[in-house]
Specification:
Strand 9, helix 6 and strand 10 form a beta-alpha-beta unit. The longest helix has 19 residues. The chain folds into 3 domains: 88 residues, 2-Layer Sandwich (Alpha-Beta Plaits); 111 residues, 3-Layer(aba) Sandwich (Oxidized Rhodanese, domain 1); 72 residues, no CATH class. It is an alpha/beta fold and 312 residues long. It has 9 helices and 15 strands. Helices cover 29% and strands 21% of the residues. The two termini are 26 Å apart. The strands form 5 sheets. It has a 5-stranded mixed beta sheet. Strands 6-10-9-7 form a 4-stranded parallel beta sheet. It has a two-stranded antiparallel ribbon with strand order 8-11.
Length: 312
């Protein structure tokens, strides 16, 4: 039975994102044994946290008690072990970084589409489906027929879209991301760029995989998540991927069979991009992590999961 409840959450609303708010939220998390990452900015809150069901409920209740956050929604999944190494509550300029001033999902945003209506939308001949995530996420799974912008970070998306728009100025656009937050900003940006019909998947891929039966699904592969589970499948079950400890690329079963995969040192995606000195350092880190595991301890230098909140 899964022991840990994982809550992915975000909410756009004016927030007094200062040291006092940071310390109060952190205190509630510590009191309830919560790990994960929460990002606080003047535009709202974003994050993924994990702990006991009671602990998660207490933290969510506290956040919802903050003026403007009563309607905060979250998505739940489960993990067999704590998917985060530690707790981080950080102050940021944006809760998901696009880097375009004036993009405000509270003022302008695309049309939300429920998971049960998503298949019909993206199957329409005149709809262009765009994945707003980054290339390493898309590599392990995406919706059938979706465009991959081949971005390394979300900051690259605006420039990519402006080039795309030159060839499709009147397109009907459907966008999606992991949990919905990147689409809040990307659809707001796209509408500011003059595109009228812009839709986005409410609750993101995670909600789709939770609500839509696999037999009816247009999703292909697994969904990258920003914690030690690495990926989830339909029904939000834990996936089959792990992370390369050197470059943090998600690795599937076939990648692990590669001659270029050396646990903790390199993988097919980075074996020719790291110096011998780097690889030696990674190998030593892997050795120390294994020694810690043999002692029943958690090595805090572990690269067992992406410790970012995730631009979900």
């Amino acid at each position: 039975m899964s022991h840990y409840l994982v809550a992915a959450l975000y909410h756009f609303a004016p927030l007094n994102a200062d040291a006092d708010t940071q310390s109060r939220i952190k205190a509630v998390c510590v009191e309830n044994g919560i790990c994960g990452t929460l990002l606080l900015a003047s535009e709202g809150i974003n994050g993924t946290i994990a702990g006991t069901p009671e602990g998660i409920a207490n933290v969510l209740a506290f956040i919802r008690s903050i003026p403007g956050f009563a309607t905060l929604e979250h998505k739940e999944s489960h993990a067999s072990e704590q998917p985060f190494l530690r707790l981080k509550v950080r102050l940021k300029k944006e809760i998901v970084t696009m880097g375009i001033p004036g993009v405000d999902p509270n003022a302008l945003v695309g049309t939300y589409v429920e998971p049960q209506d998503w298949n019909d939308l993206i199957s329409a001949d005149d709809v262009v489906t765009i994945d707003t995530r980054n290339d390493y996420e898309i590599r392990i799974g995406q919706f059938k027929g979706a465009i991959n912008p081949e971005t390394v970070t979300f900051r690259e998306f605006p420039d990519w879209f402006r080039k795309f728009k030159q060839g499709r100025p009147n397109a009907r656009i459907a966008m999606y991301c992991t949990g919905g937050i990147r689409c809040e900003k990307s659809t707001s940006f796209v509408k500011q760029e003059g595109i009228d019909e812009v839709y986005h998947l409410k609750g993101g891929i995670l909600k789709y995989l939770e609500d839509v039966p696999e037999a009816e699904s247009l999703w292909e592969g697994e969904c990258f998540v920003f914690d030690r589970r690495v990926a989830v499948k339909h029904g939000l079950e834990e996936g089959s991927y792990t992370l390369c400890h050197a470059c943090r690329e998600p690795l599937g079963p076939e990648d692990l069979k590669s001659e270029h995969f050396i646990p903790g040192t390199c993988c097919p995606y980075c074996h020719d991009k790291r110096s011998p000195e780097d690889q030696a350092r990674y190998a030593e880190r892997e050795k120390q992590e294994q020694l810690a595991a043999d002692r029943g301890q958690q090595h805090l230098g572990s690269a067992g999961g992406n410790q970012n909140a995730g631009e979900t």
